[in-house]
Design brief:
The protein has 322 residues and is α+β, with helices and mostly antiparallel strands. Helices cover 39% and strands 18% of the residues. Among the domains are: 113 residues, Sandwich (Immunoglobulin-like); 89 residues, Immunoglobulin-like (Sandwich). Strand 11 and strand 12 form a beta hairpin. Bound molecules: dinuclear copper ion (CUA). The site of dinuclear copper ion (CUA) has 9 residues, from loops.
């Protein structure tokens, strides 16, 4: 797995902690009940009278009743009710705790699920400060984040278990989820609603940075793409905007403004490509451009039959987009 934990047992925010606490109570109580049932079963088996073929039937309970057993059954029913009501109350209180996250000064992100990747638009009251990225969110530690969720094609589900529970992205029905990361780290998220062939390759990383690091990252993301520094990179940029790359991908600061695929303005700053499919290094990026279907069959991006020199130039340009 590429970086970051995907683990409900490693909560990094108050909400994930509340869900984890509830899960531990559920596990403990259900374990106790399971053990009690098995103990009762073993005792019953051991105390049952042994009979052979010619033993006469014991029908005494038909006339005498069994007050002790009836009391035991009622006690078990009462205890079960108390435990189930207790668990119900615990889950209601947990749900309310999740909704009570203070949201003052929250960061706003619009997250859209596509087959099979995530588009993230960072909102700002000053429109010139908004920017778009894909498949990796950076958030400042300690600051609440409100994520508006939209589904572009089918139903997807936002799930970063270290931060909060799941929330579906349903086409035509916008919803919201909020969270706060309280510890810096890389938290792996995953689409949690089956959405087609490459559902498993729909990974969303949330990187919780110290506030200063986050501001530096966001300032870099707001910049248009870097100007090519070498002749090869310049050639790569020209290939990108002239060939079919630009029909689907956008690179801010160039004429490439496609909106059907991840925005690549700062693609080199990301850990992975293909929404968590491959590590983002030169060799894997080249292999991906040549034949994405080899790694992510069914993805929208077709194979690119580029001559080697064009592939090198294009890859050099993409690698410069920090
Ligand atoms: Cu998107 Cu599963």
């Amino acid at each position: 797995m590429i970086g970051g934990l995907h683990d409900v047992q490693v909560p990094a925010g108050v909400q994930a902690q509340a869900i984890f606490d509830l899960w531990q109570w559920l596990l403990a109580i259900c374990t106790l009940v399971f053990v009690a049932v098995i103990v009762a079963l073993v005792l019953a088996l051991r105390r049952a009278p042994r009979a052979a073929q010619d033993t006469p039937p014991d029908v005494s309970s038909l006339s005498q009743g069994e007050p002790k057993l009836v009391r035991a059954v009622w006690a078990a029913i009462g205890l079960s009710l108390v435990l189930l009501l207790g668990l119900l109350a615990a889950s209601v209180f947990t749900d309310r705790a999740l909704a009570r996250l203070p949201l003052a000064n929250a960061l706003h992100i619009e997250l859209t699920g596509y087959q099979w990747w995530w588009e993230a638009r960072y909102d700002d009251v000053d429109v010139s400060r908004t920017f778009t990225t894909a498949n990796e969110l950076h958030v400042p530690v300690g600051r609440p984040v409100i994520v508006s969720l939209a589904g572009a094609d089918v139903i997807h589900s936002f799930w970063v278990p270290s931060l909060n529970g799941k929330k579906d992205l349903i086409p035509g029905r916008d919803t919201k989820v909020s969270f706060r990361a309280d510890r810096p780290g890389v938290y792996r998220g995953q689409c949690a609603e089956y959405c087609g062939y490459q559902h498993a390759h729909m990974v969303l990383y949330v990187i919780a940075d110290a506030p200063d690091d986050y501001e530096r990252w966001a300032a870099q993301q707001r910049r248009p793409a870097a100007t090519p520094a070498t002749a090869e990179q310049t050639r790569g940029r020209d290939l990108f905007v002239r060939r079919n790359c630009a029909m689907c991908h956008a690179i801010d600061g160039t004429s490439a403004q496609g909106r059907h695929a991840p925005n690549l303005t700062h693609v080199a700053s990301r850990m992975t490509i293909g929404a968590g499919t491959l590590e983002n290094d030169t060799a894997r990026r080249a292999a991906w451009i040549l034949d994405p279907q080899q790694f992510k069959p069914g993805a929208t991006m077709p194979a690119q039959n580029l001559p080697p020199d064009e592939l090198l130039a294009l890859n050099a340009y993409l690698g410069s987009l920090q």
